[in-house]
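quick one, 125 residues, struct below
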Amino acid sequence: MLADPESAKEKCYKHWDYDYPNLFGNVSSLCYKFCILQVISQGAISAPMFSVKGPSMVKATYPTAFPLKHQQKDLRLALGLAESVTQPIPVAAAANELYKVAKSYGLSDQDFSAVIEALRAKLQH
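---
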């Protein structure tokens, strides 16, 4: 936890010059490592998952609590169910594609949060 959250926000925003697409698009640098996690944890989109998985994602270490391959399977099942009732779920479909890429990188047995590696690779191109 940063000692001065307001200072962290100011540094983060100043660093990114309020360029929100760049802020979220350049996931690999994550604005002074934990800065973005600190900002998110204090905002409206705060969720316990950020504090649980965020630090591991920043460090690119993924101790397995729930394997990525099982998360992708669950997404696949949800997509199948949605298709059976003619209900599009485009965000889940996009997430599923990222999980499939992560599996192709050999991350199947890593924690589901390792999906960020697929996002990092996608954003570098």
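Residues 68-84 form the longest helix (17 residues).
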